């Protein structure tokens, strides 16, 4: 886990999966791929295998060791709902999020169909949690709008849209059931331009619908220079966060080692084997 993240809308990142494959135009300049491929072949580096997808089970229990409450972007270097990530691994990630509930988790995907299916079935126990926010990327109409429908049809307690990189005017959106919107332009070499006239209608629709609005950046080749002010102000709105007490270090260490041991024995899922008292403490409900 990276204790501090420079991503404007989060505080930390947690990557129990690394690597991914491209799925839509928003992926064209994927920062995670650029970063990971820099280290391909570097012996012992976490990205020795570049951007190839792989599970990182030794990272599974990491949030349990984080002793202060953080907003955590889950899989900033991958997509949790990639079709090569097994269902039972996704369930294990969700179980950690439910156990370490003093954090707020931001789970963002472009694989919205799988998100919908799993949240309505195996992940129902996590979908109902207010400290886990489930989001989809929306870069354009063709790929983005169907993702919003999938998200709305997922039985999630908190839903958000990451409209980034915004590549065109999205027109009027249906924001029913949406709790947060992030908007931003692409940054870095070859960044595709964003237009103010695409951003303002999104801000206004959020305002009318009572949806918190976060304007991340204009982007461009020199993102710092372009900044993130929109019509003279910074938009830094978030959904309200729930606060849960932090479990004792002893309990956390014990749960973490149980999760890791069960994973390595091939028997981590579900956590129904946790003793009853601990299950009650965690309020883990496995579908
Ligand atoms: S889904 Fe996300 S992590 Fe995967 S390639 Fe696309 S932008 Fe990169």
Number of strands: 11
Which ligands occur here? iron/sulfur cluster
Helix content: 25-40%
Distance between the termini: 28 Å
What structural class results from the helix and strand content?
alpha/beta
Overall geometry: globular
Strand order of the largest sheet: 1-4-5-6-7-8-9
Averaged pLDDT, please?
91
Element order: H for helix, E for strand: EEHEEHEHHEHEEHEHEEHH
Radius of gyration: 19 Å
Question: What does the main sheet amount to?
Answer: 7 strands, parallel
Helical region count? 9
* Fraction in beta strands: 5-15%
Low-pLDDT windows of residues: 268-287
Tell me what the structure shows.
With 287 residues, the protein is α/β, with parallel strands linked by helices. Helix content is 30%, strand content 15%. It is built from nine helices and eleven strands. It has helices at 31-37, 87-99, 112-119, 124-127, 141-152, 196-209, 223-226, 249-264, 276-282, and strands at 12-14, 17-18, 54-55, 71-74, 104-109, 132-137, 158-163, 180-184, 213-217, 229-230, 233-234. The strands form three sheets. It has a seven-stranded parallel beta sheet with strand order 1-4-5-6-7-8-9. Helix 3 packs parallel to helix 5 (141-152). The protein is globular and about 55 Å long. The chain starts with 11 loop residues before the first strand and ends in a 5-residue tail after the last helix. The structure holds iron/sulfur cluster (SF4). Iron/sulfur cluster is lined by residues 20, 22-23, 26-27, 30, 32-33, 78-79, 110.
Please tag this protein with its features:
globular, two-stranded antiparallel ribbon, 11 strands, seven-stranded parallel β-sheet, alpha/beta, single chain, 9 helices, disordered C terminus, 287 residues, binds iron/sulfur cluster, 30% helix
